[in-house]
């Protein structure tokens, strides 16, 4: 009996020494406006824009929250919550993000809300996970700033679609080269005075010559796509309509067929040779069939039904890139109850300031 009691005491004593005193939650929380945090956030925003195929590029507006976890055996993982704002640059526009103007409130701005996991290893950042959604500013807020400014209209609104088609017809009538097809309607607004419809839309060149087209349905998009982005206003006049349209053409972009992630969870580990490959866009609405070959590609889908913008939720939801060569998946542990965020073993410290500064304006 005495031996049993002695053994029990030894076990309890060993248990007490095995638990580190003052152990923290296993992560640290740098300030949202620290340089290291902003570098990770900018890498996350770059990743978002590289994977967008519809709508507009987004820019960083505010870092709401950050936690940094050690990733064995090397590196750190930044778990970020970010606010972004839509810019005026089309998603496929090669213009650097720094040169893209932010969509202002009176233009009916759109805000993005993202959750990201960014790995920092050997001074380089790579995105492990991205999940976003975006929302237009409320009509009430726009009206406070500009009572008579037009609001966003549904992308499949009959007037918006008609304005895009009429503007595209005008573009092809003036074209001395390729016949262009509509890729997507990106934005539409109904202007009350004068009665008109404003529309922004993307186009791509086909294998047809504009002056010789008799049946547009037979024209196929070129595999080496030549994209363009147009802004047009269709004004209603007595006895007819008047269309004013301007387009910007981009450099030819090759078509790349990429696999889709299975779900909104990080992908399984992959060999080191595949690490640098960017993750494909998330699975959203089914894409149109792609004709594999040197010349033509399938016609893309039309605008989202009953939506006023291309929600990031549908085109960047659960996008995940491969893990590092260590093969160890990142999975942050939940902090113990009552644990204070901060550096491990530093109980009582005031949490670093978050959210961070607003770079443009808050919606």
Automatic annotation (TrEMBL):
Signal peptide residue numbers: 1-18
Main localization of the protein described in the UniProt heading: secreted
Locations listed in the record: Secreted
Domain of life: Eukaryota
Molecular function in Gene Ontology: cysteine-type endopeptidase inhibitor activity
Key words of the record: Disulfide bond, Glycoprotein, Phosphoprotein, Repeat, Secreted, Signal
UniProt domain Cystatin fetuin-A-type: residue ranges: 27-133, 144-255
UniProt key word Repeat: yes
Residue spans of biased composition, Low complexity class: 261-277
Protein's UniProt keywords contain Transmembrane helix: no
Listed Pfam families: Cystatin
Region Disordered, residue ranges: 261-284, 327-351
One of the GO biological process terms: negative regulation of bone mineralization
PANTHER family the UniProt entry points to: ALPHA-2-HS-GLYCOPROTEIN, FETUIN
Name by which UniProt lists this protein: Alpha-2-HS-glycoprotein
Species this protein is from: Fukomys damarensis
């Amino acid at each position: 009996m005495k031996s049993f009691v002695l053994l029990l005491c030894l076990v309890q004593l060993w248990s007490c020494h095995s638990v580190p005193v003052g152990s923290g939650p296993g992560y640290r929380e740098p300030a949202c406006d620290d340089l290291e945090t902003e570098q990770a956030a900018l890498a996350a925003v770059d990743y978002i824009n590289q994977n967008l195929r519809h709508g507009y590029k987004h820019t960083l507006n505010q870092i709401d929250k950050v936690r940094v976890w050690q990733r064995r055996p090397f590196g750190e993982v930044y778990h970020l919550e970010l606010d972004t704002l839509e810019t005026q640059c089309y998603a496929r526009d090669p213009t650097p993000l720094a040169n893209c103007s932010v969509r202002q409130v009176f233009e009916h701005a759109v805000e993005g809300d993202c959750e990201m996991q960014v790995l920092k290893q050997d001074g380089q950042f790579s995105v492990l996970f991205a999940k976003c959604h975006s929302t237009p500013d409320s009509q009430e807020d726009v009206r406070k700033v500009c009572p008579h400014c037009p609001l966003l209209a549904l992308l499949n609104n009959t007037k918006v679609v008609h304005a895009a088609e009429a503007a595209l017809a005008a573009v092809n009538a003036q074209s001395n080269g390729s016949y262009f097809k509509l890729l997507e309607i990106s934005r539409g607004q109904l202007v009350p005075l004068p009665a008109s419809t404003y529309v922004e839309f993307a186009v791509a060149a086909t294998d047809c010559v504009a002056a010789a087209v008799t049946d547009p349905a037979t024209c196929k998009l070129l595999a080496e796509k030549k994209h363009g982005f147009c802004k047009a206003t269709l004004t209603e006049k007595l006895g007819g309509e008047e269309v004013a349209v301007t387009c910007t053409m981009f450099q030819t972009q090759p078509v790349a067929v990429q696999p889709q992630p299975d779900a909104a969870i990080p992908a399984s580990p992959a060999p080191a040779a595949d690490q640098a490959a960017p993750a494909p866009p998330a699975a959203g609405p089914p894409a149109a069939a792609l004709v594999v070959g040197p010349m033509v590609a399938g016609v893309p889908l039309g605008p989202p039904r009953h939506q006023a913008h291309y929600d990031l939720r549908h085109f960047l939801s659960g996008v995940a890139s491969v893990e590092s060569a260590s093969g160890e998946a990142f999975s942050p542990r939940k902090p113990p109850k009552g644990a204070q965020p901060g550096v491990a073993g530093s109980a009582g410290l005031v949490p670093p300031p978050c959210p961070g500064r607003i770079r443009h304006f808050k919606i």
